[in-house]
Amino acid sequence: MVTEIHGWVRVPKPLQKLKGKGTPPRAELLLRLSLQSNPEALCLVRATVQRATEVVPFPEAQSRAIVRSVDEALANIIRHAYKSQRGLPIEVSCWRLPPDPLSRKPGGGLEILLSDSGPPVDLAKLRGRSLEEIRPGGLGLHFMKQSMDVVEFRRKNGKNLLRMVKYLAPSKPEEKPQGD
């Protein structure tokens, strides 16, 4: 079920309830990229987002999942919002979320905001195809929802905004050997 919270349209993860929170005031901008719709530029964005996930720092598997989510989202912008037309603007921003002792996710994390100037997203079409269908394509939204803790869509000032957040798991105290 797609819901709207504070102007953001949220695509919830299956069997999870997520609370809508914006960027904390102390979030740190790690990078802002302005690029044009061009599939050949995606390798540059993947490498840059990969480095941002290492700065936060995420474990390697989560880092790969975040990069894949951003890559899928950008490919969708190029393919669907811009109908594969080259040279149209896309913005990518990555924010480091600080640890928040009052949050249920105290480890901090990474917020990624993608912006495009394509036509408004049709929320009724924001559904990946059935996982039972065996064919290529249509799984990008499934990957994003599975990999990220928050996936939200919004239209503001003539732009489509996609906000994705991945929280770091709180660090566990070191285990001390038992015995002697």
Task: Output the strand order for the largest sheet.
Answer: 1-2-6-7-5-4-3
Number of domains: 1
CATH class: Alpha Beta
Task: Look up the CATH topology.
Answer: Heat Shock Protein 90
Instruction: Identify the CATH architecture.
Output: 2-Layer Sandwich
CA-based gyration radius? 17 Å
Describe this structure in a few short sentences:
The chain has 3 helices and 7 strands.
Topology:
Layout: E1 3-5, E2 8-10, E3 28-36, H1 42-55, H2 60-81, E4 89-97, E5 109-116, H3 140-147, E6 150-156, E7 159-167
Antiparallel strand pairs: 1-2, 2-6, 3-4, 4-5, 5-7, 6-7
Helix pairs in contact: 1-2, 2-3
Task: Describe the overall structure.
With 180 residues, this protein is α+β, with helices and mostly antiparallel strands. It has a single domain (3-13, 26-125, 141-167), classed as Histidine kinase-like ATPase, C-terminal domain (Heat Shock Protein 90), CATH 3.30.565. The protein has three helices and seven strands; from the N terminus they run E-E-E-H-H-E-E-H-E-E. A hairpin with a 2-residue loop joins strand 1 (3-5) and strand 2. Helix 2 runs antiparallel to helix 3.
